[in-house]
């Protein structure tokens, strides 16, 4: 599992020159297509010189523009992958022990890479936004990733008021679309194959002034173009289906950070929630 161009961009973004920032913004706004243009074409789009683009690519750790573009082409293929195109790592005749070992190796690698490449500044910004008492929090996702939105919301509502999980059903979320605005932080989950209606709803919320915290994969949902915070997680699995192990771990890390940041206020709310549940049965 190689390091994506997007991850390399996040690593160097704090020390870029003004001209390099122009290239980085152009790549992020039209990722990864902008980088598949020629060096002179990318330079023209970004409003810089071609030599500046070549130096920028070298700063990202590539030996040349050709290697940079090859990495992007591989990302394009990965973005378009589906359960029908992803080969499982074991076969029909593989023993259980082989499956277990494959799962261990893949799971360890996805977790390790997710946290090794976690953009700390963006993570801190996500914690800051979610802990802001003046903000309302709305979590939503797609066909599978809605599960992550619900899971995160179940934790956040115990730690702070003003949180909801929104089910973006086309034609039935007019109230949310009308109400969303500058008071809101939308935590959006979108992984390959990216879901158009999830991206569109996130874009609508952004245009209404809401802050967007995006959980996605290393190849980046199209919502990354306008997201305020991007938190990528690896999704490789021993089966042809993408895994949510690393995204769940990242969401749980966010919960831990929010709990620590809110401190006594979170503890008081948790005690009050426990009081209301005494005498009943609940999952921990």
TrEMBL record:
InterPro entries named among the record's database cross-references: Homeodomain-like_sf, HTH_RpiR, RpiR-like, RpiR-like_SIS, SIS_dom, SIS_dom_sf, WH-like_DNA-bd_sf
UniProtKB keywords: DNA-binding, Transcription, Transcription regulation
UniProt xrefs under PROSITE patterns: HTH_RPIR, SIS
Domain annotation HTH rpiR-type: ranges: 3-79
Keyword Transcription: yes
Residues spanning the membrane: none
Domain SIS span(s) in chain numbering: 126-264
Highest taxon of the lineage: Bacteria
PANTHER family on file: GLUCOKINASE, RPIR-FAMILY TRANSCRIPTIONAL REGULATOR
Protein name, per record: MurR/RpiR family transcriptional regulator
Organism the protein comes from: Streptomyces coffeae
């Amino acid at each position: 599992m190689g390091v994506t161009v997007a991850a390399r961009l996040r690593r160097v973004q704090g020390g870029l020159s003004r001209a390099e920032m122009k290239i980085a913004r152009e790549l992020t706004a039209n990722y990864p297509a902008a980088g598949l243009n020629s060096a002179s074409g990318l330079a023209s789009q970004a409003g810089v010189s071609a030599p500046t683009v070549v130096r920028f690519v070298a700063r990202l750790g590539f030996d040349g523009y050709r290697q940079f573009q090859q990495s992007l082409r591989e990302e394009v293929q990965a973005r378009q992958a589906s359960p029908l195109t992803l080969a499982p790592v074991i076969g029909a005749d593989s023993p259980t022990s082989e499956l277990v070992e494959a799962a261990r190796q893949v799971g360890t690698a996805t977790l390790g890479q997710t946290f090794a490449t976690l953009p700390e500044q963006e993570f801190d910004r996500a914690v800051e936004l979610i802990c802001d008492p003046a903000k309302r929090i709305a979590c939503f996702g797609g066909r599978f990733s809605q599960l992550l939105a619900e899971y995160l919301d179940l934790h956040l509502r115990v730690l702070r008021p003003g949180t909801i999980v929104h089910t973006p059903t086309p034609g039935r979320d007019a109230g949310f679309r009308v109400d969303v605005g500058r008071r809101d932080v939308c935590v959006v989950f979108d992984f390959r194959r990216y879901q158009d209606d999830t991206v569109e709803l996130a874009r609508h919320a952004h245009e209404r002034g809401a802050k967007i915290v995006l959980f996605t994969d290393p190849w980046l949902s199209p919502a990354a173009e306008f997201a305020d915070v991007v938190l990528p997680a690896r999704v490789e699995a021993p089966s042809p289906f993408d895994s949510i192990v690393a995204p769940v771990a990242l969401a749980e890390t966010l919960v831990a950070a929010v709990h620590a940041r809110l401190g006594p206020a979170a503890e008081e709310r948790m005690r009050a929630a426990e009081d209301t549940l005494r005498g009943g049965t609940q999952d921990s």
